[in-house]
Each structure stands twice: as structure tokens, then as C-alpha cells.
């Protein structure tokens, strides 16, 4: 573990420091790190189940894209695509990248795109970093009604596309009866499927921005490897329909996003870095518990990406995990103190700007993080999930973990099989032999679990409650 000493200058401000002062302390930190790594794998954050989730959600996106017949590319983003949450543990973030339009930055030639595609050029001089206004460069021969309804005049004889009007245009879409649509949340239209599966739907455009990506790629770094840097650049960017909060032009601004690039980056974090990221998310949810989005999982992801970029990869291993959790908490505390956190892909965009953090909340969280860090390796005991595993009897907990993992894998397979068995009206052929086999195995595990819980005196209502609990 590296010694706490001089801090190397870097764009994100996150570099290696030591969290220990003696050999005895070092042994405690390392032993605590090894034990916590094992516990987290039991909890569903081991590399095998994470990769299985990633593969399943990528396949689901491919299946949904095929159903769109060229109109859009469907991409699962966020924690689901990263493989870091169980099936019902958080909302699904689904991005529809529409094929009818694309956006380009200054210096990019619009003539290289097909004539049927509508082309917008970004104009960012009047917007906050990482945001832009989209001026109509060329109207395509085929134009969607949602896009057409969102066009408006900028007052100088030019047409632009309003992000507010574009999101509003999708509120008119009629879903089937089992899907409930909710009010807009940022760039998304949240929906609830079958009473319990929540999804945030975002309609976006591809953004050809080689200048932004080349600036990111040219930074000096320890991580990721050059071939991964090139892969990230090749994945490009997107524009989502949301402006900078408080901006005079908020209703017509769009935000630059790198969803697929960030998925690739998270996929290239090692096991220790992934677990630090998950632990930071636990701290946010269970210790700080923000009521709004003053601190989000996205904030914590950026902290982890900066730490990974600015430190030698050899220092991230099983024995150093709690050290890096300490560093992540310190970086979060600094962000709260200064109200500054540079966006990993576009550093001059401050992720803490307009976050709505109030002074009293700021002081409370800074004090809480300081107390937690001062506790040393015992800080991990503040997290309910970790405490739950520590007090559980090993054999019953491992029995439960194995079955919960199998249930989740079955549910992911059922999700994709249902997509394959769905007709053009969205109806699923439930009689398909593979689908029935998967459901039968799922029910067998649920009945086994129900029986064991009942024999041990636990209150269990029905199999549906058991299934929901095992997927949360």
C-alpha cells in the first residue's frame, strides 16, 4: 500500500495516499479488505455474476434493437449495464438512440451522412460546459413526427430543436395497459411495467464529436490501456434532451453523454475498483441517504474513474480495497467541501454545479464522512449489508446466496427468452418450451426456499413475495 506523502498533480485531484500509520494498522486494513472482498462476492458482487448480468442486458439491448427494425438502437445503461445491481434492486435505464437524426460538432462535415438523416450542428458558446444547443444543419428526406414537432425558430431565422419539446412529444405515446407512464424526470420518461419493474426511458441522438474525445484520449494516465482508450473513442457520444439547471436556454439545451463509453470503462475496472465503487454507492444510500440527487451514483462513478486513471494499477488489489474506499470517501468529502467535481469525460464540466446541496446538508455529510474515515477499517460496519453478512450463520447464508444467484440468472434468461417469444404486438408466447422450463426451475427453487423459511419460523406470504425479495 502506498505511503501518504506528496500528492501527484492530476486533473481530477485523486491520487494515491496512505490510510495507515504503522505495521499493525496495515495488517488490520489488509485483513479487513480481504474479508470484505469475500463478503461482497457472497452478496452478489463477484466477477462471475457481474459478467453474467452485463452479457444478459447487452443481449436484451440487441434483441430490442432488432425489434425496432432500424428506427433506433436500444441500449441498457447505468448500473444494470454495468452488472452492479440485482434484477429489481434499481430502476432500468433504457436509452433509445434514434436513427432519423444525428448531431455533429464544429469542423465535422455533414455531407458524410446519408441524405435521409436530419443533421444538427452543436453550438456551445452560450451553454455550460458539456451542454449545447442544436441548430438544424440539414433536413433529412425522412423526418419523425416527434422530431418535427420539437423544431422551433431561434429568433435569427435558424431552426433549432428544443429538448423540452422533444421529451414532451413522447408523452403522447400510448403504452399497453400494463405500463404506467410517470411525469418527466430530467431527460427521461419513467414508466412502471406490470406494477413493479421501473424503467427510465431516454430518447437521444448520436453525437459526432472527435474534438471532445481526442482531448480526453490525449490525457496522460495510468489507466485505461491504450487499446481501451481507442475503443472508448470509437464508441462516440450521445446527446440527451436536458439542459443545464438554471440556464437561460435550459429548455433548448442538450447534454453530452458517453453512456456506452462509460460502460466500457467500468467493464475495464478490476475487481477491487468495482467493489470500491459498489461500497461507495452503499455509503451514499445507507449512510448519507440523499433525498434528492445532491449526490448520485454517477458522482461516485466519476470519483472511481478519476482514482483509477491517476494511480498505478498494481496498487489496486484485494488487500488494498479498504484503503481505496478511504480514498474515495476523502475525494467525496473534498467534492462536498469545494462543491467541485470535474466530469471524467469533460473535466471543465463541474458535476457539483447546480446539485441543490444546502449548507446544513453539506456540513452534516462532511462531518459524517470525516467520522467514518476516522474509524479506520471499522468504517465498513456502518453498511447494513456488510453487517448482515457478518452476523449471519455461514452455512444458511451460503445456501441462500447460491439459490438467489440461480434465481437471478434464471430471471435474466427469462427476460431475454420473453423478448425472443414476443410478437409484433408485444404479446409473449408463454407456452414456448424453453420459457416453461425456465419458469418451472424458478418455481422449484422458490418452493424450496419458501419451505425452509417456513420451517425456520420466518414469515413468508407467497411465492411472488419470495421472488421479489430474492431479486432485490
Keywords:
single chain, 472 residues, alpha+beta, Poly(a)-polymerase, middle domain, Beta Polymerase, domain 2, 3 domains, 6-stranded mixed β-barrel, two-stranded antiparallel ribbon, 47% helix, disordered N terminus
Give a structural overview.
With 472 residues, the chain is α+β, with helices and mostly antiparallel strands. The chain has helices at residues 23-45, 47-67, 78-82, 145-149, 163-169, 210-217, 226-235, 259-267, 271-288, 297-309, 321-338, 359-374, 384-391, 394-420, 433-455, 463-471, and strands at residues 72-77, 92-104, 118-123, 131-138, 151-153, 159-161, 179-181, 188-193, 197-208, 237-240, 253-257. The protein has 3 domains: 23-44 and 269-380, Poly(a)-polymerase, middle domain, CATH 1.10.1410.40; 57-257, Beta Polymerase, domain 2 (2-Layer Sandwich); 392-471. The strands form 2 sheets. The protein has a 6-stranded mixed beta barrel with strand order 2-3-4-11-10-9. A two-stranded antiparallel ribbon has the order 5-6. The radius of gyration is 24 Å and the shape is globular.
Helix content: 40-55%
Number of strands: 11
How does CATH name the architecture of the largest domain? 2-Layer Sandwich
Class by alpha and beta content: alpha+beta
Sketch the major β-sheet.
6 strands, mixed, barrel
Fraction in beta strands: 5-15%
Strand order of the largest sheet: 2-3-4-11-10-9
The chain-level mean pLDDT equals: 90
Number of individual domains: 3
Shape type: globular
